[in-house]
Amino acid sequence: PPRPAGMGDVPEPCPQAPLAVLSKVELRVSCKHLLDRDTLNKSDPCVLLLMQSQGQWMEVDRSEVIKSNLNPVFAKIFTVDYYFEEVQKLRFEVYDSHGQAGVGTHDDDFLGGMECTVGQIVAQKRVTKPLFLKYGKFAGKSTITIISEEISGNNGYVELAFRAKKLDDKDLFSKSDPFLEIYRIDDDRSEQLVYRTEVVKNNLSPIWEPFKVSLNSLCSCEEKRKLRCVVWDYDSRGKHDFIGEFFTTFEEMQKAMGENKVQWDCMNPKYKIKKRNYKNSGVVVLLDLKIHRVYSFLDYIMGGCQIHFTVAIDFTASNGDPRNSCSLHYINPYQPNEYLKALVAVGEICQDYDSDKKFSALGFGARIPPKYEVSHDFAINFNPDNDECEGIQGVVESYQSCLPKIQLYGPTNVAPIISKVARVAADEERTKEASQYFILLILTDGVVTDMADTREAIVRASYLPMSIIIVGVGNADFTDMQILDGDDGVLRSPKGEPVLRDIVQFVPFREFKNASPTALAKCVLAEVPKQVVEYYSYKAFPPRCPRPPTPDPSLGSPQ
């Protein structure tokens, strides 16, 4: 059998939103022909991963130490975020470790380094480069190989618990010290180390610690892909003794879910040929298997989750008389005002995810007919039983027709509208299905008056399927509004209870005045996919089964 793997109009950039993570990438590392720094044994290598940030190299992670091995294959999987639009510089440094003292950073312990970018590894999938010592000197014939795999959206991870029984004894004066390795067999028949367990000392019936691996890593998300599992007797000098192996698939492993167990004969092919009555070299048992699915935003959308869009418009007196051209609510026949620009930019994106194309449109801070009492959550179409408008154009028309009928007043209270949408979202939550998610767009010209109630309402809403986008219109000082956007710290209710999820995004419209409408939408909606996934993951609601395509009503009936 093979030896063990070496343990051997340019839109403005959004001021708040970080770059969107395109995906996560798993990196596996192996080395060959490392320098031998130890006098009696071989080097005990360990790999450090560093990333460049603002010109400085920062260590982000490190591998396990592999004893006495110049051709190590590290079990550690490094996970990095991949940004398509950024050059992400990586540096791998290999050191000879010294037991309890850990990884030294002296020149004597340095076995070599290599620099590359995440983009290079992702583009090539497998990169092999020479290792260099200080001052650009080759580290002998040493090489390092990095293999990358993208963690796909509809992925997840699996938790496995193995034990073995009656393994062959390979040691003279004590019992074997077994560990288990799992390899994925790829399409080109090469083997990729997936996981290596810890060593259980002096035990022929070891119980290994449960461990988690991604489905992508284990079987490339293909249940029938062949896996090779090998049991070794550990040797501190790196010359591990082969005990036996077996082949399986993730499909077969899944029989171990619930109360069931799956077991395999651990076979040594040499003994099978030589020994007439050879049965096995022990038995390996899968005690338990748990699957944890991880879903993406698109999984929920393709499963039929609808995005319900509500807009709330500030009609307080500080906006100015709508008949005056200086008013933020002035209707100019040639140029939409800031309220309309923000509404259309965000609404046009959201409408693609709502099949009935009907949007709730609410107003606050105005005196409304017939009694002209102040309201903080009125339907701008003046239909209390149905506040929905037909499409974005319907919202625009309702907004324009309601302005002459209301009196701008105050104060700027937004908690009632947050609570109103939250009540509808709470009804949706009770279905225990990922079928509707709510986005509330609040357009306001000033700092909210009911800050304590608003904070309380946001904390309550963070437990529901909803996100809140606040766009500050006009030139007011919006400093106090930043507190609602959890970017600078966790938002808390007046009693100190933190939000479950960061669900608020605040931006002043003036930062996008000279940008295209898509820049504003991109910025304020950047966080929404993450917020949707966070909510449904917290609730453990899987996406519904993908639905057949829905005909677009705007296209008319098929011929």
UniProtKB/TrEMBL annotation:
Keyword Repeat in record: yes
Domain VWFA: 308-507
Entries under SMART domains matching the protein: C2, VWA
GO cellular component annotations of the record: plasma membrane
Keywords for this protein: Repeat
Coiled-coil annotated residue ranges, if any: none
GO annotation, biological process: cellular response to calcium ion
InterPro entries: C2_dom (IPR000008), C2_domain_sf (IPR035892), C2B_Copine (IPR037768), Copine (IPR045052), Copine_C (IPR010734), VWF_A (IPR002035), vWFA_dom_sf (IPR036465)
PROSITE patterns per UniProt: C2, VWFA
GO molecular function: calcium-dependent phospholipid binding
SUPFAM superfamilies referenced in this protein's UniProt entry, alphabetically: C2 domain (Calcium/lipid-binding domain, CaLB), vWA-like
Family membership: Belongs to the copine family.
Protein name as annotated: CPNE7 protein
Alphabetical list of Pfam families matching this protein: C2, Copine
C2 domain ranges (all copies): 3-131, 138-265
